[in-house]
Write the structure tokens for this entry.
Amino acid sequence: MITVKNLHKGFNGVSILKGISTTFEQGKTNLIIGQSGSGKTVFLKSLLGLHTPEEGTISFHDKVYGDLSKSEKRKLRVKIGMLFQGGALFDSMTVEENVLFPMEMFSQMSDSEKRDRANEVIKRVALINSNHKFPSEISGGMQKRVAIARAIVMNPKYLFCDEPNSGLDPQTSILIDNLILEITQEYNITTVINSHDMNSVMEIGQKIVFLKNGLKEWEGTNQDIFRTENKAVTDFVYSSNLMKKVRTMYLEDN
Amino acid sequence: MKYLHDFGLYFIMLKDIFSKFTKWSALKKLIFKEIDDLIIDSLGIVAFISFFVGGVIAIQTALNIDNPLIPKYLVGFATKQSIVLEFAPTFMSIIMAGKVGSFITSSIGSMRVTEQIDALEVMGINSLNYLVFPKIVALMLYPFVITLSMFLGILGGWVACVYGGFTTSEDFTMGLQYEFNEFHIIYAYIKTFFFAFILATIPSYHGYYMKGGALEVGKAATSSFVWTSVVIIIVNYMITQLMLT
């Protein structure tokens, strides 16, 4: 579980996050949504420790990140898996080497054990015959899967995903969403996803945090989002006619 | 103000490079890869430029000595002094700032743009140590490149003079041996070590702290070449002033 209290962050005197408090639950897919410029990326990077908050706290299972020593932070980071928007795979390494990388850095396992574990997670994300290919030789969807495999290879307690569906076709997007959901439940990890994709919101939004102008405007589940009367949320989520129809049909059925 | 900020940030970067070391088994592989990329891959261009510039230096010197009272062996002497003291260590380093420096800036800059550096940081890896330290270690072999440059520069001068009919082989060789001062070699190698460190760290700084996209990677590579060259020239002047005067 990750608890955020009164988080403030700005750059060059411009305030981006203006006091966000929320909780991301373990074993659930927690989505952060909001318009471009609402502070989603800064929020996610603050959770990851890439930005230092100006005020407020971020706690990982009751341990306040800002209070940890450097070595404790390092240990915590090994428990964090991250799926970047573009995959952030290392270009000079093959698929297998990318997945092996965190183990090469932090694991005491033997070479054969590392290789077995890498192959296990590569298989888990359904990548076949790609071990010796370079990231540039595989599709965007496959790159995302490799990035997921690399993120989960160390059995993380926390998984962060930045726009996991960007640049993917709808079918591959659903596959990636389902994979993240399955992995979250299978390994009982706290997953935080930064997303623009309304399909993801409806499919895997077990908890949704809606940001507007650096503040938490609304939070709830993918069921609650159909019933909410919050104008900012409805304007954002149901901006297309298709989504409006989906909402109407859902409310009529329920 | 920006220069002051960059200056301070560069030294903070140096401190961070030497803190929290990456696992040795991983670092070892990276060092060998960097030796291949930065040293081995540079040998061809270094050999080509050194041989022909050595030849040009010898021909220019020979053509400018038209006084019959000046002994012909001075062509060999002047070629040796020019190549050992300045051309090989300093001007070859400026050429390397273009070749190796741009490579370092663009490769680290691309990693910044594609969030690979963020990925390293999120994993708990000191990205500066992981990316820059192996380059510094690999470039400690840079004096071997400069040795090759010195040898081929002088060989180029010998070939140009002897086969161009400017001096005899004996005169040229006598000039090479004339007033040989070991301290000049020590001076040249001390410079080379400083330049190697500059070649590894300034381009890394420009790549690591760049902001933006692909266009900015190109701008960072250009800026890296300019600043590496400027710093090499200034450090060259300082070392020469300290050691030879």
